[in-house]
Amino acid sequence: MTAQGELQVQGTEKQIVQSDAERTRERIAFVPRVDIYETEEAIVVLADMPGVDEKSVEVTLEKDVLTINGYVEPESYQGYSLAYAEYRVGDYQRRFTIPAEINRDGIEAAVKDGVLRLHLPKAAPATHKIAIKAG
């Protein structure tokens, strides 16, 4: 807050995907902002992807790389032409390297209101204590 009591909002520009790979779509792609939470049982990733629904998002896992792709079609209104826009529309793309402790077969994804929720369950510990006998 400022001295006059006005709320100051810090602008956050959308970050454009920087990649050497060539995209198959001519639309700009943004890096979705994420929150990552960890519990004893899982890692949860929440990705903000406005305009994306269950039909326009794709999550893949190849080796240890989890890739999120969201495809957004710009809205157009018949009889109107855009005069000014403060919000840029584009696709979303982000990659994460996931740790070996994640149970790859148990990964779940859901999307609601433009927020993708990934649930990455942790695998059972691979180590166990071995009893030692005398003699």
Q: What would your notes on this structure say?
A:
The strands form two sheets. This protein has a four-stranded mixed β-sheet, with no helix packed on it. A four-stranded antiparallel β-sheet has the order 2-3-8-7, with no helix packed on it. The chain has a domain at 29-74 and 84-121: Immunoglobulin-like (Sandwich), CATH 2.60.40.790. Residues 1-11 have low confidence and may be disordered. The radius of gyration is 21 Å and the shape is elongated. The termini are far apart. 0% of the residues lie in helices and 33% in strands. It has 135 residues and is mainly β.
Tell me the layout of helices and strands:
Layout: E1 29-30, E2 34-38, E3 42-48, E4 57-62, E5 65-70, E6 91-97, E7 108-112, E8 115-121
Parallel strand pairs: 1-6
Antiparallel strand pairs: 2-3, 3-8, 4-5, 5-6, 7-8
Summarize the structure.
By secondary structure, the chain is mainly β. It contains no helices and 8 strands.
